[in-house]
C-alpha cells in the first residue's frame, strides 16, 4: 500500500514538472521583460520608430524591426545604441533618462521582433583604400547620406556620428551596406543582389575604410525621415 502511495506521489510530481515545462513558466521572465519593454517603447520610441518599429512614426526614425538589422546586431549593441543615442541626430541618449532595467527590457522587446537568423557572407578582413572609398561614396551614397556622412534631411541617416561609429563594427557596416535593410530606401549594394548599386566587395570595403576617416559634423540634424 505504502509503495503504491509513493508511486503515485512520484507520478504526480512528474506530471506537475511536465506541466510547468509546457506552460512556459520558465520562459516567463523573458515574457515579462518583453511586455515591460513594450510599455517603455510605446511611451518613448513609438513617436519616431513607429508602432511596428518600421520607422513609420510621425517623427523621423529608422526601421529597427528590420530582419537584416536584427540579425547583424547583438543585444549589447541594441542596448548601447539606445543608452548612448546619436549626438546631433534625432536619436536621444536614453542612459540619463531611463533606468537600467528599462534599457534591458527594451532590448528584450526589440529582440522579440526577430523572426529569423540570417547568415551574411562577409570578408574576413575589412581593410581597404579610403581614397578610393571616398570616390565611390560620393558616387553612390552622398545623394542620401550627405557629404562625408553628415546625413540628409528625409533622405539618409548620419554616418559620421561618433556614437554610430563607436558602437558599430566594420563587419556590421559591411552587412548594412552590402545587404541593405529590407523595406527601406537602404537597398542592397552588393553585386548580384537585387539592388540598384551592384558594387564589388572591394568597393564596399573601401567605402568603410573611408567612413572610418570622416570627422563628425557638429550641426544638428533634427529630422531624417523614412518614407
Ligand atoms: C525623436 C525621434 C526618436 C526617438 C524618440 C527615438 N529614436 Fe531611435 N533613432 C532615431 C533616428 C533618427 C535614428 C537614426 C539616427 C542616425 O544615425 O542618423 C535612430 C536610431 C536608433 C537605433 C539604431 C538603429 C539604426 O537604425 O541604426 C536604435 C536601436 C534606436 N534608435 C532605438 C530607439 C529606442 C529603443 C527608442 C526609445 C527608447 C528610440 N530609439 C527613440 C530617432 C528616434
Ligand atoms: C536612396 C537613399 C540611400 C542611398 C543611395 C544609400 N542609403 Fe544608406 N540608408 C538610407 C536610409 C533611408 C537608411 C536608414 C534605413 C532605415 O530606415 O532603417 C540607410 C541606412 C544605412 C546604414 C545603416 C546606418 C545606421 O544608422 O545604422 C548604412 C551603414 C548605410 N546606409 C550606408 C550607405 C552607403 C555606404 C551607401 C552607398 C554605397 C548608401 N548607404 C546608400 C538611404 C540610402
Shape type: elongated
Instruction: Please bin the fraction of helical residues.
Output: 40-55%
Class derived from helix and strand content: mainly alpha
- The assembly state of the depicted protein chains is single chain
- Report the CATH topology name of the largest domain: Cytochrome Bc1 Complex, Chain D, domain 2
Number of helices: 11
How many strands, which pairing sense, and closed or not: the largest β-sheet? none
Overall pLDDT score: 88
CATH second-level architecture of the largest domain: Orthogonal Bundle
**How many domains is the backbone divided into?**
2
Transmembrane segments: 6-25
Domain Cytochrome c: 32-114, 128-215
Pfam families: Cytochrom_C, Cytochrome_CBB3
Protein name: Cytochrome c domain-containing protein
Walkthrough of the structure:
- The protein starts with a helix and ends in a 16-residue tail after the last helix.
- The chain has two domains: 29-111, Cytochrome c-like domain (Cytochrome Bc1 Complex, Chain D, domain 2, Orthogonal Bundle), CATH 1.10.760.10; 130-211, Cytochrome c-like domain (Cytochrome Bc1 Complex, Chain D, domain 2, Orthogonal Bundle), CATH 1.10.760.
- The chain contains eleven helices and no strands.
- Helices cover 49% and strands 0% of the residues.
- It is mainly alpha-helical.
- It has helices at residues 2-23, 28-44, 46-49, 67-72, 75-84, 100-111, 130-140, 142-145, 162-166, 170-179, 201-211.
- The structure holds heme C (2 copies).
- One heme C (HEC) is lined by residues 55, 62-63, 66, 140-141, 143-145, 155-157, 159, 164, 173, 176-177, 181, 184-186, 189, 197, 207, 226.
- One heme C is lined by residues 44-45, 47-49, 59-62, 64, 78, 81-82, 86, 89-92, 94, 106, 151, 157-158, 161, 164, 224.
Amino acid at each position: 500500500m505504502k509503495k503504491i502511495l509513493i508511486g503515485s506521489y512520484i507520478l504526480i510530481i512528474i506530471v506537475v514538472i511536465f506541466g510547468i515545462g509546457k506552460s512556459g513558466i520558465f520562459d516567463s521572465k523573458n515574457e515579462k521583460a518583453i511586455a515591460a519593454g513594450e510599455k517603455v517603447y510605446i511611451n518613448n520610441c513609438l513617436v519616431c520608430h513607429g508602432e511596428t518599429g518600421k520607422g513609420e512614426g510621425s517623427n523621423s526614425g529608422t526601421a529597427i524591426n528590420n530582419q537584416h538589422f536584427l540579425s547583424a546586431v547583438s543585444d549589447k549593441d541594441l542596448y548601447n545604441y539606445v543608452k548612448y543615442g546619436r549626438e546631433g541626430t534625432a536619436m536621444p541618449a536614453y542612459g540619463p533618462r531611463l533606468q537600467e532595467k528599462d534599457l534591458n527590457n527594451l532590448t528584450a522587446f526589440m529582440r522579440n521582433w526577430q523572426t529569423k537568423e540570417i547568415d551574411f557572407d562577409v570578408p574576413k578582413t575589412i581593410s581597404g583604400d579610403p581614397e578610393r572609398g571616398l570616390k565611390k561614396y560620393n558616387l553612390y551614397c552622398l545623394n542620401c547620406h550627405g557629404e562625408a556622412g553628415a546625413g540628409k534631411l528625409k533622405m539618409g541617416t548620419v554616418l559620421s556620428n561618433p556614437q554610430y561609429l563607436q558602437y558599430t563594427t566594420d563587419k556590421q557596416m559591411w552587412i548594412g551596406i552590402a545587404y541593405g535593410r529590407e523595406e527601406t530606401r537602404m537597398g542592397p549594394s552588393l553585386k548580384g543582389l537585387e539592388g540598384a548599386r551592384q558594387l564589388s566587395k572591394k568597393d564596399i570595403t573601401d567605402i568603410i575604410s573611408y567612413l572610418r576617416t570622416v570627422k563628425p559634423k557638429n550641426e544638428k540634424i533634427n529630422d531624417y525621415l523614412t518614407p
